[in-house]
Amino acid sequence: MNRVLDGKVALVTGGSRGIGAAVALRLAEAGADVALTFQQDQPRADDVVDRIKAVGGRAIAIRADSADATAVVAAVDRVADELGRLDVLVNNAGAFLLGEFEQLGMADFDQTVAINVRAPFIAAQAAVRHMTEGGRIVTIGSNMAERAVFPGFSLYAMSKSAMTGLTKALGRELGVRGITVNLVNPGPTDTDSNPADGPNADVIRGFTALGHYAEPADVAAAVTFLAGPEARYVTGATINVDGGFTI
Ligand SMILES: NC(=O)c1ccc[n+]([C@@H]2O[C@H](COP(=O)([O-])OP(=O)(O)OC[C@H]3O[C@@H](n4cnc5c(N)ncnc54)[C@H](OP(=O)(O)O)[C@@H]3O)[C@@H](O)[C@H]2O)c1
């Protein structure tokens, strides 16, 4: 792979499994040193770190619950401190809390908004203090913010749609500093939270134009493009990697 990110440092939240792990590895293959956060599973985080080191990059794993604002900011600052700089922030960690509208409680609301809205906001705020011209912020949203095909998604869809406003407003505000801000909205992607052999997978796949799930690497490819120099004129944009789910 073309090492377009040589000399760059990236942070991927929720990088120990699924889409985040694929993004972390792909950024490393493109030459970046990569830090990742995780919530619980240290062995899986360590495994991703080992795989990044195997392709020649430096890597660290940081336990940081995205629901904990202090931990999020501390993780960003630690990356800049330990790896020497911060060029790319990928807001990937997400809460996937579904439920019938009238059954969703205040704790569900607060947890979802803390992880899916507050964490990307404050991580970006902390990251731009370290970023220079060429900095990149990429957030992982969701197809469900664009097309609500199932009941039970009110909280999740609401929280993910907030990323459109954040992306556009930040893209506008940070453009003058040469920092781009973009959103990638995956469709059904084969991970632990939405397995391609899960009980509703056939129905879900039926809503796509391509008729199948994405692999995490499909989402990682779009993120890596946005993180690289060829995307220097792309900001405030949303890329749907959803197999046509939203068309
Ligand atoms: N999969 C899909 O079909 C799909 C579709 C649209 C959008 N998305 C979005 O894509 C993103 C990644 O989803 P995924 O399917 O790859 O998830 P996943 O396979 O369940 O992986 C979740 C990752 O995030 C970490 N994580 C979970 N909660 C966290 C928290 N509170 N703080 C820090 N890290 C946390 C996990 O760490 P531990 O291992 O330590 O728990 C793990 O590394 C999410 O924002 C999701 O909403 C996914």
From TrEMBL:
Which InterPro entries does UniProt cross-reference here?
KR_dom (IPR057326), NAD(P)-bd_dom_sf (IPR036291), Sc_DH/Rdtase_CS (IPR020904), SDR_fam (IPR002347)
Fetch the PROSITE patterns from UniProt: ADH_SHORT (PS00061)
Specify the domain of life of the species encoding this protein: Bacteria
Which Gene3D superfamilies has this protein been placed in?
Answer: NAD(P)-binding Rossmann-like Domain
| UniProtKB keywords | Oxidoreductase
Keyword Oxidoreductase found: yes
Give the family from UniProt.
Answer: Belongs to the short-chain dehydrogenases/reductases (SDR) family.
PANTHER family assigned: OXIDOREDUCTASE, SHORT-CHAIN DEHYDROGENASE/REDUCTASE FAMILY (AFU_ORTHOLOGUE AFUA_5G02870) (PTHR43639), SHORT-CHAIN DEHYDROGENASE_REDUCTASE FAMILY PROTEIN (PTHR43639:SF1)
* Protein's recorded name: SDR family oxidoreductase
